[in-house]
Amino acid sequence: MINWFKRRRNKNTSYDTNEEWVEALSPPVDEQAVDVLRKKLIQGLKPALHKYVDRELDQFVEDVAQDALLKVLDNIDSFRGESKLTTWAMKIAVREGLTELRLKRYDDISIEDLKPEDGSREVFSLTVASDETSPDRSLHESQLIDKVMQIINEELTDKQKKAINALMIQGLPIPAVVKLMDTNRNALYKLVHDARLKIKNKLELEGIDPDKMLDKL
Amino acid sequence: MELTTDILKNLIKSAQMAIEHEIGCDECFDELHELAEMELAGKSPAEAMPLVKDHLDKCGSCREEYKALLEALQNIENGQK
Ligand SMILES: [Zn+2]
């Protein structure tokens, strides 16, 4: 009965306000509102994602919109109205789409492929290349490298070393490192932030000015 | 594992840019819809939400998502006209 009243009342509205949206998307869900939102999401996702998708864009975008709609309905309680509801829903949809694309990109790569060839032990014992391989390296530069290596080896946890090594030394993309370390993006960012801060503070403590260091390199 | 001059530079730069309070990807995501509307309304993201802007400068994945969001929003606004 309640359901019937709600559907009738919302018939033909254009969902202009957040209040109208939230009511329509809260249980019992107004299917018409879901359809309107779906169309909007698809309309926005297509131009935003087309450069990442090489084929079947329409199907991909529809699937993403569907997954995003389920998340929107599940989390409608958490919408605080800081923006238009459609903006908030689009944010969820865009992340859904790009996350899906990143997963696809790294789906075929096994964890074994991501590990450095010379074994995982290397990850924890960073060594500097010998002088023979870089004859041009100045004494000053060698000292700086030694210093930074020492800080990394002494101050960072094994996890932090592994992350710094994978991201900055081997240059692996973030999604690959997330997979390799069996973590998530947020946790990886925080781990690396903590490591960067440790290196910065240690350099300061030792009276080394990073700007001067960079100038000399 | 060779630590080349370029890697060393990047490492030092990224350490140097570290500030005590940086937000993570989740906190950034929590604010992104609000920032997007502010930016589309012509406000400077750095002034409106400095911590979120700082994260976007440092995190390629979140930056990619933010740019795609702006593009999507611009498109639905144009579509309504
Ligand atoms: Zn991020």
Order of helices and strands of chain A: HHHHHHHHHHHH
Integer tally of domains of chain B: 1
Largest interface: A-B, 59 and 41 residues
Q: What does the largest sheet of chain B look like?
A: none
SS summary, helix count of chain B: 5
Q: Percent of residues of chain B in beta strands?
A: under 5%
Give the CA-CA distance, first to last residue of chain B. 56 Å
Query: Percent helix among the residues of chain B?
Result: over 70%
Output the structural class of chain A: mainly alpha
Class by SSE composition of chain B = mainly alpha
Largest sheet of chain A: none
**String of helices and strands of chain B:** HHHHH
The best one-word shape of chain A is elongated
Secondary structure tally: strands of chain A: 0
What is the element layout, followed by pairings?
The complex is a heterodimer of chains A (217) and B (81).
Chain A: H1 2-10, H2 18-25, H3 31-49, H4 57-74, H5 85-107, H6 111-114, H7 121-124, H8 139-155, H9 158-169, H10 174-180, H11 185-205, H12 210-216
Helix pairs in contact in A: 3-4, 3-5, 4-5, 8-11, 9-11
Chain B: H1 5-16, H2 25-40, H3 45-48, H4 50-58, H5 60-80
Helix pairs in contact in B: 2-4, 2-5, 4-5
The complex binds zinc ion.
3D structure, described in words:
The complex is a heterodimer of chains A (217) and B (81). Chain A has 217 residues and is an all-alpha fold. Chain A has 2 domains: 13-107, Rna Polymerase Sigma Factor, Chain: A (Orthogonal Bundle); 114-216, no CATH class. In chain A, 69% of the residues lie in helices and 0% in strands. The longest helix of chain A is centred in the middle third of the chain and has 23 residues, at 85-107. Chain A starts with a helix and ends with a helix. Residues 117-133 of chain A have low confidence and may be disordered. Chain B has 81 residues and is an all-alpha fold. Chain B has one domain. Chain B is elongated, with a radius of gyration of 16 Å. The interface between A and B is large, with 59 and 41 residues. The structure holds zinc ion (ZN).
